[in-house]
Design a protein that fits this description.
Blueprint: E1 11-15, E2 19-24, E3 30-37, E4 53-59, E5 61-66, E6 69-74, E7 78-81, E8 87-91, E9 98-105
Antiparallel strand pairs: 1-2, 2-3, 3-9, 4-7, 4-9, 5-6, 5-8
Length: 119
């Protein structure tokens, strides 16, 4: 299957005032996920005790927090997140969404709590 970072050919799993979340679960062990983070919003932040994650920013401007470090996130930036590290994205723009695509091991994302630990 061929996809692009901006068109992952997934299914919308959440769409609310904070973000639109789309997952492609074509692979057996990995999920490709795209988030459109709405202006002046942030993800709730979380960490995975036994899972690494990759974030690739595709448009907009944001702040990526990994552990205690904060980074400016621009189109084309890629962040490698070690297991156990808290991470969160904030959209600084008043008008533009901040979009990013993630790759991670599959886990149960049903409900608001999912199978990861909130900080």
């Amino acid at each position: 299957m061929k996809v692009s970072l901006e068109n992952i050919e997934g299914v919308i799993v959440k769409d609310n005032e904070t973000y639109t979340l789309e997952d492609n679960n074509y692979l057996e062990n990995l999920t490709l996920s795209r988030t459109v983070l709405k202006p002046k919003q942030s993800t709730r932040g979380h960490f995975h005790e036994n899972q690494e994650e990759v974030y690739i920013f595709t448009s907009g401007v944001g702040i990526m927090t990994i552990g205690e470090e904060k980074y400016q996130a621009l189109e084309g930036d890629t962040f490698l997140i070690p297991k156990g590290k808290f991470h969160r994205v904030e959209n600084e723009s008043e008008i533009w969404p901040c979009c990013f695509t993630c790759v991670f091991e599959k886990y149960n994302r049903s409900g608001d709590e999912a199978n990861y630990n909130l900080k």
